[in-house]
Design a protein that fits this description.
- Helix content is 37%, strand content 11%.
- By secondary structure, the chain is of the alpha/beta class.
- Helix 5 packs across helix 6.
């Protein structure tokens, strides 16, 4: 196995957080009626995508009946529908939707990760669970050496990336970058973009619209294509 495959193998076998282990396995044993009879993944989720990616996306954690069911990050739920549809629109995904880990979808120039790899109760990992899981994100940053743009989905993903970035030897700019939808910060050779998470709470209420979501990915494309020459750190909005 190459180093990234070795890391993903270690992630899948992780049992560091007893509360998350119990929850992810309990959910799989008593799924809602619409998923009755399906075999749940019920393990931590590895990162997914192109090992040579220049775009890294950092989310929060798998959904109980999304990634925890399908075995692929951001797959099998409405958040994933938004994300993969947008990735396809901007040329990063081979398919406009992600149904399960065996659907043949491929990502090009994009890799997807998360702050926590197991589905947490109420979508709320505990502080010590973030701490135990962060070494996996740190190691990904070490291995994904061509990363040039990071899209952090939600403030939690934003803060998790910054902590991993510093633990990986990065220098925190002053003032510290603040999360906001459309925020932009330069971290050496990497551009960090803030984006509201495409959760149902945000998309159903209109806090996050398709246009707003696409705007962030359009900005990412501009940076990757060298069409974004200025440097700034955007304040929270």
């Amino acid at each position: 196995m190459n180093p990234l495959e070795t890391l993903n193998h270690a992630i899948v076998g992780c049992r560091r957080c007893p509360r998350l282990v119990r929850w992810r396995e309990a959910v799989a044993k008593k799924p809602p009626l619409r998923y009755r009879g399906q075999s749940y993944w019920a393990r931590p989720l590895p990162g997914f995508g192109d090992p040579k990616a220049r775009l890294l996306i950092v989310g929060l954690a798998p959904a109980a009946h999304g990634g925890n069911r399908t075995g692929r990050i951001f797959t099998g739920d409405r958040s994933g529908d938004w994300l993969y549809g947008t990735l396809h629109r901007f040329g990063f995904s081979s398919l406009p939707g992600s149904l399960d880990r065996d659907d043949g979808l491929k990502l090009t120039d994009c890799y997807i990760s998360a702050a926590v790899r197991c589905a947490p109760p109420d979508n709320k990992p505990l502080p010590d669970e973030f701490e135990r899981c962060r070494p996996y994100l740190v190691r990904e940053l070490q291995l994904l050496q061509q990363t040039r743009v990071v899209i952090a989905l939600g403030k939690i993903g934003f803060d998790a990336f910054l902590k991993a970035y510093v633990e990986n030897g990065g220098t925190m700019p002053k003032p510290r970058p603040q999360f906001g939808h459309g925020s932009l910060a330069r971290l050496g050779a990497v551009t960090l973009l803030g984006c509201y998470h495409p959760s149902q709470q945000n998309t159903f209420t209109g806090k996050l619209t398709r246009e707003m979501f696409h705007d962030v990915f359009n900005q990412a494309k501009k940076v990757l294509e060298g069409r974004e020459a200025f440097a700034k750190t955007s304040a929270a909005k």
